[in-house]
Amino acid sequence: MGMGMTMSEKILAKASGQESVKAGDIVWVNVDIAMMHDLLGPWLVDGGFRRLGGKLFDKEKVVVVSDHCTPPATVQQADILKFTRDWSRQQDLPYYYEFEGPCHQVIVEHGHVRPGRLILGTDSHTCMAGGLGAFATGIGSTEMIGVLLTGETWLKVPETIKVVWDGKIPHGVYAKDLVLKTIKDLGHAGATYQTIEFSGSAITDLSMDERLVLSNMAVEAGAKTGLIEPDEKVVEFLRSKGVTDEIDMVSSDPDASYIRTLHYNASELEPQVACPHEVDNVHPVSAVEGKAVDQVYLGSCTNGRISDLRIAAQILKGKKISKNIRCLVVPASQHIWMQANKEGILDILTEAGCIVNMASCGACGGFTSGVIGAGEVVMSSSNRNFRGRMGSAKGEVYLGSPASVAATAIEGKIADPRKYLLKEVM
Amino acid sequence: MSFIIRGRVWKYGDNINTDIISPGQYMSQPVDKQAEHAMEAIDPDFAGKIQAGDIIVAGNNFGSGSSRETAQMVLKHHQIGAIVANSFARIFYRNSINVGLPVVEMVDTSVIEEGDEVEIDLLAGKVINHTKGVEYKGTKLPEHLIEMVKLGGLEPYLANKLGIS
Description:
The structure holds two protein chains of two kinds.
Chain A: H1 7-15, E1 26-30, E2 33-37, H2 42-51, E3 62-66, H3 75-90, E4 96-98, H4 103-109, E5 118-121, E6 135-138, H5 141-150, E7 152-156, E8 160-166, H6 175-186, E9 195-199, H7 201-205, H8 208-216, E10 225-228, H9 232-240, E11 260-265, E12 272-274, E13 282-284, H10 285-288, E14 295-299, H11 300-303, H12 306-316, E15 326-330, H13 334-342, H14 345-351, E16 355-356, E17 377-380, E18 396-399, H15 402-411, H16 418-425
Parallel strand pairs in A: 2-3, 2-5, 3-4, 5-6, 8-9, 8-11, 9-10, 14-15, 14-17, 15-16, 17-18
Antiparallel strand pairs in A: 1-7, 12-13
Helix pairs in contact in A: 2-5, 6-8, 12-14, 12-15
Chain B: E1 4-11, H1 18-21, H2 31-36, H3 46-49, E2 55-58, H4 70-77, E3 82-85, H5 90-99, E4 103-105, E5 117-121, E6 126-129, E7 134-137, H6 146-151, H7 154-161
Parallel strand pairs in B: 1-2, 2-3, 3-4
Antiparallel strand pairs in B: 1-5, 5-6, 6-7
């Protein structure tokens, strides 16, 4: 057994003011960033927060993002959005964002997410911040009340599962395929209470955009967080976002203890699809090819970044989507929307017949802008395919990479993206 | 919150996730409206048949998915006495304790049948099936959470800690 510490142990040791901690310890930690969104934030938190004094521990460390009710589809959503905006003004929050996109992407783009930080948010996909080496996890609204008042909470130091992806990722295969395969093997509760640490040469080869796909979906295996060791790409990314502070290059010790290690060779992987109604119901695309769909959803905080939109544009350029479907494009942020516009990507996608929506949580969570009806089937690049997730409980959601989603848009049936991409290479 | 809970059992399977308990499409509505749709994807009769004090007994991975506390809110609205499962998803387990909704894990819930009368002892980690006259071993409440549960959840616990009455 190693005596060294994992990344999780190091970050939680620092957050609890101790030299060292080990998996299983219960520690009281100081929170670096407390993040709330509109649907599970101020609206639900305010009552208890006021009853307990109503004073924020440190407004510089509180970030609020309105993203689920944007744009509001109902009067109730508009009321929640207004409540969130008013609350953030009353609290004089320096960091309130709205209509900018899903919170997980927004806090990355604005430099709130940094290696070594402890980030708690009222959303299960808060773990996405782990792609930059922050220990980030979802909490409930009541727990957030305590964090807002005291800046502290208790955490159990998690054990870590090491997931190693070596080898060169083949053409047409992406981070989404890697993480779906990982979730299939771990099972949807296989990492409950634990950290997944992604490493290996295939992971270090990934762009910042793609690393965030892995950490975003760690919770789909039940994990507390998904971590990737920060490197020069992370530093470069943060510098490009105007972060000038010293960056904590936290890493696991070579003799750290892992509860389990999974080894993969990425060069053998083919595109993967998660079938209804669980994220671990994963099959190679060849097994589900030809399944007819009604809607295609290209976007979300999981896979709506600029590199995702570029891949989709490459596949859809000069082509038309199937007449039998509609294809909704939802960039992961307004910033990405504008970048895609500048690059001509939105022209390519709309000329192919896609509809471009604003950046929001929208139909991914079944809230606004493109929910599905009974009997409808969606192929989506988002992160969750539970029954009723995108609307009707009688609908079906399949998950795949942006490339698989774009190829499906052309055929109106679940399709292997490689046949469209190989032409480009030849 | 009491450490001893007794009630009638409704049985459910594995992976009762937060989209089933609290569907996203109703989350912006008032709690009583949301509660009408709780569990409807797998049991359209749920809201109609559930009585105050009833106990949900389920399989693996109860409450997987979202951090939405609307899941606890709708179950509390129906005055569910407790949830017994083989295992819980992490955030759901934590949220339940924070809001004073009793949760207990036991190795194999398949030995309990729908309609059974069960009693749960959170401190002793026991599940007693009065219908069958059998006692099962459950998980004990973690030591550091006993005080919080005794006071009724995180909000009263914080009030105590911060000296607010």
